[in-house]
User: Which sequence fits this backbone?
């Protein structure tokens, strides 16, 4: 499993990398000392796993995750236990407190190894995001790791996009065009200028005005599909 260690303290990085040599399944590809370097390495190398410090010069680990289009699995490694609850709220695989103990590191690695192969195989894919891939969402002080299959709708609001999953509706600084470029069209369909719909969440489709369509999601929300996109939808779904 390919991994990157991210920490602003060089000695802390070296110590963790040395400890990881005891786990032959973990291949440390690179290390980074700040979020800018880390972002470049993640985007270029496509690791399956990152060991991530939270407090670093130039931005926090959470800020790094919010900059990524595709988020690897994360194990937080930090000296600040006040962040522990927040880390688990974003559904990190584990949270290690410095100085890292061998037993705790072994437990974290076991959690990684228990993941389904499909949950790891897609981590290096830097093109199309698939339903089992996860994205990181940060809205103010709240953060989430969300599998794409759980997102039922992306809705444009000015320069932001509102993301609908479970009972949450956070805003992210992205455009629908940016998202559309990364999402698999067979699962996430651009219904209109304002909406991208997860087709797996569509409960009902019916004809609408001027040759368009109206789809109803499982949560009851109704989305109009533009006439142009309705033709594309019928082509994709052979209607």
Assistant:
């Amino acid at each position: 499993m390919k991994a990157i260690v991210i920490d602003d303290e060089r000695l802390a990085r070296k110590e963790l990398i040395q400890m990881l040599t005891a786990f032959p399944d973990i291949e440390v590809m690179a290390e980074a000392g700040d979020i800018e370097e880390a972002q470049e390495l993640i985007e270029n190398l496509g690791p399956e796993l990152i060991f991530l410090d939270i407090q670093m010069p130039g931005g926090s680990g959470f800020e790094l995750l919010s900059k990524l289009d595709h988020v690897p699995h994360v194990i937080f490694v930090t000296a600040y236990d006040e962040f522990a609850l927040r880390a688990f709220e974003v559904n990190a695989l584990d949270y290690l407190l410095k100085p890292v103990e061998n037993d705790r590191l072994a437990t974290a690695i076991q959690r990684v190894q228990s993941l389904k192969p499909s949950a790891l195989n897609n981590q290096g894919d830097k093109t199309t995001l698939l339903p089992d891939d996860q994205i990181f969402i940060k809205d103010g002080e709240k953060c989430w790791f969300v599998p794409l299959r759980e997102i039922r709708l992306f809705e444009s609001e000015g320069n932001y996009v509102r993301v609908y999953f479970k009972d949450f509706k956070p805003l992210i600084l992205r455009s629908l065009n940016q998202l559309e470029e990364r999402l698999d069209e067979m699962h996430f369909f651009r219904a209109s200028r304002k909406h991208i719909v997860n087709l797996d969440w569509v409960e009902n489709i019916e004809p609408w005005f001027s040759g368009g369509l109206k789809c109803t999601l499982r949560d009851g929300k109704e989305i109009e599909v533009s006439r142009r996109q309705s033709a594309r939808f019928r082509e994709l779904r052979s209607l």
Q: What stands out?
A: DSSP finds eight helices and 15 strands in the chain. The chain has a mean pLDDT of 86. The two ends are 42 Å apart (CA to CA).
